[in-house]
Amino acid sequence: MTLPFFVYGTLRPGEVNHDLFLRGRTRSEVPGRLSGAVLYEGPGYPYAVEEPGGGVVCGELVTARPETYAELLAELDRLEDCVPGDPRSLYERVERKVVRDADGAVVRAWVYVAAPAVAARLRTHGRPIAGGDWRARR
């Protein structure tokens, strides 16, 4: 299934991994919000942890160019240490509804959220990022 990606950390425009992975491979990048999640500090990158009734995570909806989609999907899974079914994974790639800021449209997108073991540790010992915006933490 070809979906846009919702990015909220180092893949956002102006962040370190944006140029390495996304520059020249996207058709559009627009601000958006993911509801029902809390953003936590990680070791140099954030984790979105799904929480029913949780907060809002700010980021961008990134639509890949069709000719780059399959390769980009595989590269982002590797970057995010996302291996389906592997309990050692840091992230899981899940399909979620994201609101596009410009017009309020709800868009289905891939989101990398903290894998279950990571999410459990963060809920207990993690430090939430106030306001759910990785950029605003600085």
- The termini sit apart by 36 Å
SS strand fraction: 35-45%
**What does the overall shape look like?**
globular
The proportion of residues forming helix, as a percent range, comes to 10-25%
What is the CATH topology classification name? Hypothetical upf0131 protein ytfp
Would you kindly provide a written description of the structure presented here, covering whatever features stand out?
This protein has 138 residues and is of the alpha+beta class. It has a single domain, classed as Roll (Hypothetical upf0131 protein ytfp). Helices cover 20% and strands 36% of the residues. The chain contains 3 helices and 7 strands. The strands form 2 sheets. A 5-stranded mixed β-barrel has the order 1-5-2-6-7. Strand 3 and strand 4 form a beta hairpin. The chain is globular, with a radius of gyration of 14 Å. The mean pLDDT is 94.
Write the layout of secondary structure elements.
Layout (H helix, E strand, L loop, with lengths): L4 E3 L8 H7 L3 E10 L1 E4 L6 E4 L5 E9 L4 H11 L11 E10 L5 E9 L1 H10 L13
Write out key terms for the chains shown:
138 residues, Gamma-glutamylcyclotransferase AIG2-like domain-containing protein, 20% helix, 7 strands, 5-stranded mixed β-barrel, alpha+beta, GGCT-like, GGCT-like_sf, 3 helices, globular, Hypothetical upf0131 protein ytfp, AIG2-like_dom
Short structural description:
Pfam families: GGACT (PF06094). The protein has 138 residues and is α+β, with helices and mostly antiparallel strands.
